[in-house]
Amino acid sequence: MDQKIFIKTFGCQMNEYDSNRIYDTLKKIGYNKTEKYEDADCYLLNTCHIRDKAKEKVYHEIGRVKKSFKLKSKPLIIVAGCVAQAENEEMLKREPYIDLVVGPQSYHKINDIILNYKNKNEKIEETEFDVVSKFEYLSKIKNKSKKISSFLTIQEGCDKFCHFCVVPYTRGPEYSRPFNQILDEAKNLIDNGTKEIFLLGQNVNAYNYKDLRLSNLILEIEKLQGVERIRYTTSHPKDMTEDLIEVYKYSKKLMPLVHLPVQSGSDKVLKLMNRKHNIKTYLETVYKLKKINSKIEFSSDFIIAYPGENEKDFEDTINLINEIKFINSFSFIFSPRPGTVASKLDTLDKKKSLLRLETVQKILFKNQIEMNKSIENKIINVLVENRTDDKTKLFGRSEYMTSVVFYGSDDLIGKIVKVKILKSNQNTLFGTIIDSTHQKVA
Ligand code: SAM
Ligand code: SF4
Ligand code: F3S
Fold first, then answer.
1. pTM of the shown model
2. C-alpha to C-alpha distance for 400 and 387, rounded to whole angstroms
3. Hey, which of 160, 166, 169, 343 would you mutate to test ligand 2's pocket, going by the most ligand atoms within 8 Å of its Cβ?
4. How far is CA 54 from the centre of its chain?
5. For the chain, which domains are there?
């Protein structure tokens, strides 16, 4: 059997990792990846439930697929990811075009689920939390990512229950993968050509396998021959432990950008959110890290207009942003999520919320533009990842994850090169390579 599978992925990096692992898994039963969804025999939607009308977006997407396959034979339709977990059999009832619903902790069963469906034509939803079996199974299937920068999930789920967040319900309790299982996957990725390993978890710095922490993992991975850069996301400020902070003293490969979501600059709002950290401890962590390694910069996530946020609380958020000068951040208006504590609270006036979001983003973007401007005329290290979409230039990333575009030849892909930055905008640095004979300004 040689069939084609197309996966459309929404949401966070963990969903991206999962989609790649699903491709690896389905290969075992004869499904090969296609980039063209019109060619698909199996169309899988890997969904995200974090904000807004997540559920409606999924039905909308299914409607679109249904329309475009009107004159062709229907592909097998699978809904996976966090909406699948939250909605489970409801989805099969509401949209008969969907064949299978599979939650994020059941991907190890996906081949059997598909084969069973083909044999018996029986629609099912599989949303058990069986994360141990999932990773045991996945560790036996090689991760085929051939990217220069590859994701590697080390931890899943969350026990923190911030009042606004669906993750503890969609991904289940915190689980840390066995240390050696992760190292084996890292070696495998490096053998495939990976130069940057991006460790992932909904609470990545809560990683704890038999008292081995994220710090141990970073120091072990950096010993592996061939790996050039290590990153991790997403961290909770409460789990930024001394051992992890110390790693920034010794590690040669851990990148100096720390993504540390604070959500709000107001202690009152943080308490209402059940965040379990306050601004004093957050700032202590930031300054400890800066003291250990002055190159470190920070990025963050913000929830604006959380129920109970007043003008003073909002000002506290602005003040924090002005103090830390995050170089890259995500900010969203609070979105009530079904089943969470905050879903029962009164939301703020829509106009006021939007105005606050615009105000915050203006400052965040200004900081980002200024940071990029300050790099102009400087020479930085860039890990070259691939060609730009139009194929004319090379695309890479700075140590701070900023996109860098410049002219160069294909043999530089996978290498760290020195680039002199000549121009910049909010999201991209443009430069010229200085250690190659091929110099041309991008
Ligand atoms: N575990 C991370 C932490 O503790 O910060 C966050 C993971 S969550 C997948 C990513 C981001 O989504 C959060 O940092 C938060 O800013 C945002 N988010 C989560 N729930 C939200 C909601 N109900 N409304 C708006 N933004 C939300
Ligand atoms: Fe969600 Fe992060 Fe809070 Fe967990 S710690 S509930 S993933 S925001
Ligand atoms: Fe979305 Fe689930 Fe990730 S809700 S952000 S895909 S953990």
1. 0.96
2. 19
3. 160
4. 17
5. 3-130 (3.40.50.12160), 133-373 (3.80.30.20), 376-433 (2.40.50.140)
